[in-house]
Amino acid sequence: APTELEKRMLKLQRILFKISIFIFSLCGVAFSAQAKDYKFYGQDYPPYNWEENGKLKGAMVEIVTKACEKMKVNCSIEIVPLKRGLNSLENGTVDAVISLFKNPERDSYSISSVPIITTKMSYFRVKNKFKKIEKLEDLKGYTAGAVMSSTSSKLAKSHMDIISHFSVVEE
């Protein structure tokens, strides 16, 4: 029997699929008027998109795949490092990158859809090993890890300006 988390993920996937079909249908004329294949990149970002045993998985992978099937266009999805995906989007060698946060830098070279999924970002620490973090200033002396070129990395770096002895390491 599915766990409660699996049930919630399935429900979320169904909702996201309906939203994405609506969004993609708005672009349907543009897609169908062009006889080409569409190439999507996504980062390794469970539960939205990832590769497992050579198979692509995740809510956004399913949404894009179903939307492309419904629109009768050929689409491929590949999991790549985020920085490569963003560079490819900016220079036009990929049609879209899935599971991104909207930010002004990306707006300068791309167009984003309405948000399909919303999330909150947090800092995490090892339980019972370090003091409790209740406000940004409590991060003094800590090092945060972040994905290179990600919005969360940029946000963490912005905290370096207000927190002394805080550093960010990008993968």
Task: Please give a structural write-up.
This protein is of the alpha/beta class and 171 residues long. The protein has 6 helices and 7 strands. Helix content is 38%, strand content 16%. The strands form 3 sheets. A 3-stranded parallel β-sheet has the order 4-1-5, with helices on both faces. A two-stranded antiparallel ribbon has the order 2-3. The protein has a two-stranded parallel sheet with strand order 6-7. α6 (151-160) links the parallel β6 (143-146) and β7 (167-170). α1 runs parallel beside α3. The longest helix has 23 residues, at 4-26. The radius of gyration is 18 Å and the shape is globular. The model has no long low-confidence stretch (mean pLDDT 78).
Proportion of beta-strand residues: 15-25%
Helix and strand run = HHEEEHEHEHEHE
What is the CA-CA span between the terminal residues? Answer: 37 Å
Shape: globular
DSSP summary, beta strand count:
7
Strand arrangement within the widest β-sheet reads: 4-1-5
Q: Supply the number of helical segments.
A: 6
Characterize the largest beta sheet: strand count, sense, and whether it forms a barrel.
3 strands, parallel
> Structural class, from helix and strand content?
alpha/beta
What radius of gyration results from the CA coordinates? 18 Å
Q: Kindly state the percentage of residues in helix.
A: 25-40%
Average pLDDT taken over every residue: 78
Low-confidence stretches: none
